[in-house]
């Protein structure tokens, strides 16, 4: 559960209004906290996109990514502004944006600093966090992170135990806002998208329309959809 006073914070809403996807009517979407230990990183990815009628709350995330990659549903895309605020930032852990092939922008993570970007459209990753002994070997197993009082934090698993001072943890808050202005555009393009219509449109683009009624070959259909739309956006 997210705290309402943070989700609806005026400063965060103003950030969304002035983002790259400028929106005169942003709506708070979500707020969550990320904890990263020394040695941890995030691989290149794009955040889960949203569409009018389908989102992370009622559709598989893989399907939403395929829909975005296909470019078939651009008229129903709901822009999301993402703000990353670093509460604490040990050495390392740069946010790296892949703006286009062969070019990356490195944004240094600094405590009490923030960046706003289109996380569902721009591929991005997080470099390994520094600041002490690496936790990667322990986090591959079922591990538990617990407070050890004033001494910091303790990570335990079947592989062993590591202690970290509080300043070694990379703590960030991620706030997302959706643009209600886009709903007006979506209304002009028809009804909200359903799971059935999304799969039908993806399949139709691959000339699977003759098999949609009874799903004569559902496994083959899914393989064809994944093969065509799993990569980068078209």
Question: What report would you give on this structure?
Answer:
With 234 residues, this protein is α+β, with helices and mostly antiparallel strands. It has one domain (4-229): Jelly Rolls (Sandwich), CATH 2.60.120.1520. The chain is built from seven helices and eleven strands. Mean pLDDT is 78; it is low at 1-5 and 209-214.
What keyword list fits this structure?
7 helices, disordered N terminus, alpha+beta, four-stranded antiparallel beta sheet, 11 strands, globular, Jelly Rolls, 234 residues
In short:
This protein has 234 residues and is an alpha+beta fold. The chain is built from 7 helices and 11 strands. The protein starts with a helix and ends in a 5-residue tail after the last helix.
Largest sheet: 4 strands, antiparallel
Structure classification? alpha+beta
- Residue-averaged pLDDT, rounded? 78
CATH topological fold name: Jelly Rolls
Helix content, binned percent: 10-25%
Instruction: Note the gap between the termini.
Output: 36 Å
Order of helices and strands: HHEEHEEEEEHEEEEHHH
Principal-axes geometry comes out as globular
């Amino acid at each position: 559960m997210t705290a309402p006073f943070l989700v609806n914070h005026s400063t965060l809403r103003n950030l969304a209004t002035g983002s790259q996807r400028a929106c005169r009517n942003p709506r708070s979407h979500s707020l969550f906290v990320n904890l990263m230990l020394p040695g941890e990183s995030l691989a290149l990815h794009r955040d889960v996109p949203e569409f009018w009628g389908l989102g992370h709350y009622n559709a598989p995330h893989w399907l939403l990514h395929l829909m975005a990659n296909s470019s078939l549903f651009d008229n129903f895309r709901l822009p999301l502004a993402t703000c990353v605020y670093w509460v604490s930032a040990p050495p390392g852990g740069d946010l790296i944006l892949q703006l286009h092939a062969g070019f990356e922008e490195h944004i240094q993570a600094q405590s009490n600093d923030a960046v706003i970007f289109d996380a569902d459209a721009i591929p991005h990753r997080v470099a390994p966090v520094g600041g002490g002994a690496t936790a990667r070997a322990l986090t591959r197993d079922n591990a538990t992170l617990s407070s050890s009082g004033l001494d910091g934090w303790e990570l335990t698993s079947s592989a062993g135990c590591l202690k970290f001072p509080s300043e070694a943890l990379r703590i960030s808050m991620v706030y997302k806002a959706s643009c209600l202005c886009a709903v007006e555009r979506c209304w002009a393009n028809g009804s909200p998208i359903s799971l059935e219509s999304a799969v039908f449109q993806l399949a139709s683009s691959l000339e699977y329309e003759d098999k949609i009624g009874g799903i004569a070959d559902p496994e083959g259909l899914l393989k064809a959809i994944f093969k065509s739309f799993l990569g980068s956006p078209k």
